[in-house]
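Encode chain A's predicted structure.
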Amino acid sequence: VVQSLNLLQMATDTTTTNKCPLNLQKSLDWCQGVPELPGIKAKVYYINSQAVLGYPSLPRDEQGRATGSTLTGNFVLAEGAKFKHIDHLPSKAQVQTETQGEIPSQTIKTTLTIVHPGVGSAASDIVPSLLNQDNIFLVEDMKGKIRVVYSPIYHDSVATVAQDLGQGATGTTGTTIVITASDEVSLPTYTGKIETDEGTINDTTGA
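Encoded structure for chain A:
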């Protein structure tokens, strides 16, 4: 009887102290034959984080864990600030993520690679706005979803730029831009508005 009571007490203690519900697991379906188109579309948007006053947020549970990758809210920009764009060659673009670190501190490293075909003064002029800057990049996947390459938690966006004027009459020119950034989740989806010099994308205000 005493042993049974001890076992019952141990079970009660475990139930009481285990405050981490296993509610993050989700099923992942795929219907055979549904196409998954690779690549991103031919325009990316970027802005310096110093021009952002507020960020969209990830859904979280009571323990603060991210429970999804779709952001809520908008990027709130400083007065006069706008997202700029870079046209690139989609056939040479790539977006990849991989885990980094060890348990219990694993995060995601995102790498964005784009190639702008030009190497003239206009292409060279944007280099100072990329190097030694903490920039937020937005890319559009082939399903029309905006994916974010950045996290306001880490502020560790790093750019490298390489220009190639080509080799001989059959060479190819290009300005290659590579962005790396850390995040909690892989390629979060942004559904809010994007204020650009050409107008507002995803403007749901009806204006």
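The mean pLDDT is 90.
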